[in-house]
Amino acid sequence: MNVLTFIHSHIQTFFPMADQIKALNDYLRNAEKILFFTGAGISTNSGIPDYRGPQGVWKTRQPVYFDDFMNSHDARVEYWDFKLESWENYKTVQPNSIHHTIAEIENAGKLLMLVTQNVDGLHVFAGNSREKLVEIHGTDRLVECMACHEFTGPDAHFEFFKKTNEPPVCAKCGGFLKPATISFGQSLRQDDLQKANNAALLCDCVIALGSTLSVQPAASLPRLAAQRNVPYIIINRGATDHDGLPQVRLRLDGDVANFLPAAVKMGLR
Prior knowledge:
Layout: H1 3-9, H2 11-14, H3 17-30, E1 34-38, H4 66-71, H5 73-90, H6 97-107, E2 111-116, H7 122-126, E3 133-135, E4 138-145, E5 151-152, H8 155-164, E6 177-181, H9 190-200, E7 205-209, H10 220-226, E8 232-236, E9 248-253, H11 260-265
Parallel strand pairs: 1-2, 1-7, 2-3, 7-8, 8-9
Antiparallel strand pairs: 4-5, 4-6
């Protein structure tokens, strides 16, 4: 590890925030094909709870596994009941400064790909294009039939469940309907995984935001890029599974909103 890499990887400990933001800006200026990897920590400022933090969703509710959803009526009821909470929240949430800043980076021509673990759809609402977005864990903004794989809007299905407490089924084929997210035990969509992998092999900088980098295989994507010796930057409040990796050039601890928007305001060229 050279002196510059050592300083940047330890900048959180030794330098004030202004210098941390300047170091981040340096990487943004020098990059032309950035791969962003975002997690639940970037949406908490929009009022969406995270999953594994101190107040995380999984502290109060256990996840419904995919096989259980497919084989148990009670599990489908539990799953739709859990998703109903998110749907009610989505009626009012809006993108925050982090989402808007990543859209600004795309508009500046520096975004190669945005891979998100989030299912809230806020990156699209902030202005990121679908061509440069991989929602690796799916989206709550659509409902998918598990039999014919037709996608429909969620509102009517949630209204039906709210009134009947019965999991909705597909009007076309009678198959089980499920919000179009990837459940525990469900395989990632191969097209999305391939698109994300391709970006990891082409990017010249990878930046992980608001993720504990603990959920596999999604969390392997930024590391795949970093193994090519491109700069790897992690910004997260609290520890991540990639802390201490030799490939990490810059590690900033805290709210992403305190770092990324300020770094972009300093200019991207």
